[in-house]
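Example record

Each entry pairs one chain with its bound ligand, pyridoxal-5'-phosphate.
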Amino acid sequence: MPTPTDFDVRAIRGRFPSLAREIDGHRVVYLDGPGGTQVPDACLDGIREYLTTRNTNTHGAFPTSEESDAVLAEAHAAAADFLGGAPDEVAFGANATSITFAMSRAIGRTLRAGDEIVVTRLDHDCNVAPWLALQDDCGVVVRWVDVRTDDCTLDEASLDAALGPRTRLVAVGLASNAVGTINPVRRIADAAHAVGARVWVDAVHAAPHLPIDVAALDADFLVCSPYKFFGPHMGLLWGRRSILEALPVYKVRPAEDTLPSRLETGTQAHEAQAGLLGTFRYLEWLGVSRGGAAGEPGTAEGRRERLQAAMRVIRGYERSLIPQLIDGLSAIRGLRIRGITDPGRVDERCPTVAFTLEGHRPQAVSRALGTRGICTWDGDYYAYELIRALGLAESGGMVRVGLAHYNTSDEIEALVEGVGEIAAS
Ligand SMILES: Cc1ncc(COP(=O)(O)O)c(C=O)c1O
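Structure tokens for the complex follow.
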């Protein structure tokens, strides 16, 4: 089993050209990953190669179109390996929000007035607003799972209370994009399935941090966003084949009625799929070189295991950084982290930490860090309900620091020093 020290973050950083960027003499410290990560060289190469050699539309009777179709098919197969599904269960779209709205409308066509959907107060609004919209569209009743404000975990008692014989869907995030909590999705899926409901999982925040296995989660649908896991701007959906085949999706008449075409409206960002293939090749390299997985990156054989190995290695490294981040920030006077801070509970969180600093508005803190070249987010990051449940909406939300596997212990030190100086100012 490789240890975090085998990780060699310098070599990893060498694969991400943007990490060399400097602003006003400061090496940029990218702690804004939850809003979108940086991309490796292989992703850039994939985009460039696609656009310079086979940039065209699908299903043409000519060589570049045939080559392009092969790239797109390979992107679906690799994405399926990333999530643990089958290639035809995977569809791309503009982003997770657009996919969720499109699918929620299709799911709404199967529901009747009085059917119930369960949503949580910990989720990004991408996994709330599309389901709320069905209240007006088809008379669905939305029930809420509350969040415990002491540690920002889901209140499981309120989940049990929300489930009932009319529950048709439970919409839950795998991890919180605001405070990093990892939700017990398998347990939630079991409870949902026990009442005959389906489970929609928003894995956007989890995807850059954790290995994902749709079968182990027993999800029915799962969405994520490649631009949050070292790929280009696009969204990715996995769904259980039997459900996707039967879903009355909105589609143009000439489009093929087979999977995944029936889910992908219009022309996709082909170059982004080619870039994502590069991202997967990079992750496979990580899985082989750091995670001990076998095989050749870029080939189908063994790809799932190489990708899983990469994500296990990433999780191990990031997990090792969490205590430094939490301890360093917690030692600053007036700083309060919301979410899990107990070092014994790191397995329940991603390396995403949100905090307030007494006497300083979150945006002022982020701006001051920005002048030091340190990128952090402030506000609610669309975790709309959570920020309100915490009573922080009026005061500008929180500052959010999100580590990715290309971040270093030195960068955490620079962050803590910067926040400490701001606190003292
Ligand atoms: C947990 C979570 N869900 C959904 C989204 C929305 O993703 P997209 O921008 O792909 O629509 C985000 C983006 O921040 C997110 O963090």
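Residues 34, 95-97, 124, 126, 173, 177, 202, 204-205, 225, 235 surround pyridoxal-5'-phosphate (CB under 6 Å).
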